[in-house]
Amino acid sequence: MIDLFKKGILTGIGIGLMTKEKVQDFAKKAAEEAKLTKEEGRKFTDELLKQSEETKQQIEEKINDQVKKVIDKLGVATREDLRKIQEQLDKLQSSLSKKTSKKNDS
Question: Residue 13 contacts by C-beta under 8 Å, 6 or more apart in sequence?
Answer without folding.
Answer: 55, 59
